[in-house]
Amino acid sequence: MSGTETRDHEPTVVVHPDGDVLAAAAAARLISTLADVQARTGSASVVLTGGGTGIAVLDQVRRSPARDAVDWSNLDVYWGDERFVPADDDERNEKQARAALLDHVAVDEARVHPMPASDGEFGDDPDAAAAGYAAVLAADARAAGGATGAAQVPAFDVLLLGVGGEGHTASIFPSSPAAEESRAAVVAVRDCPKPPPTRLSLTFPALRAAEQVWLLTAGESKADAVALALGGADEISLPAAGAQGRSRTVWLLDRAAASRAIRR
Ligand SMILES: O=C1O[C@H](COP(=O)(O)O)[C@@H](O)[C@H](O)[C@H]1O
Description:
This protein has helices at residues 19-41, 52-63, 93-100, 126-143, 177-180, 204-207, 223-230, 255-258, and strands spanning 12-16, 44-48, 75-79, 81-83, 158-161, 186-189, 199-202, 212-217, 248-254. The protein is of the alpha/beta class. The structure holds the ligand O=C1O[C@H](COP(=O)(O)O)[C@@H](O)[C@H](O)[C@H]1O. The site of ligand LXAUTJHC has 15 residues, from α2 and β4. One of its GO terms (molecular function) is 6-phosphogluconolactonase activity.
């Protein structure tokens, strides 16, 4: 972890038999965590991720008979990263999340906060779009009574992340400027090794404002990144290692992704 921030908790690692069980179990965990937070505080917030496992979890939430344990109208929805493409592009994390879940539950659209698209109000300017999203987060943080941690962002209740095979998380890629960002909450990311090349991403200070960070990943292609992150790799060369929540960090894995980190 960079700077002076330290976290006094070890990550929890939960290993499921395969990707389908992982998605169903993470969905159940998400429903019950958001319902608990709402029972305690009246409201909750979640930061969504794209990627295969992240969208599979939302699909499982939609299919769950318990999904309406969450009061969807009392939920703030944000994104941890976005592909900077037109709003209607199938690559967009927002579009995939809406199809998997958000179009099927009674969310309050005023509380759904997608990152800007490349044909949106900031046009094809990812730096302006990143600044625009940072302003949304800062305004919500002020409305909630103040920012949390180093970034001007709300204290997200649950923040979901995927993990790339090379160790990226959100759209913070290894040894990229985004991995070094210590002030801005949101950055434009260019020349990504994984297409599409231009993206928007929360930074480490913003990710770390979340109460709980859950890293979700499945498959053998993620095994090296998981082993390195859990083995103490530095966050610049392996960004997934730097994603930690204020009170909890939970790695939700299938056996294949966990295979080099944990021997059972
Ligand atoms: O491009 C992205 O990839 C990561 C990981 O996706 P996966 O399909 O390998 O699980 C995801 O977390 C991120 O949100 C997304 O933009």
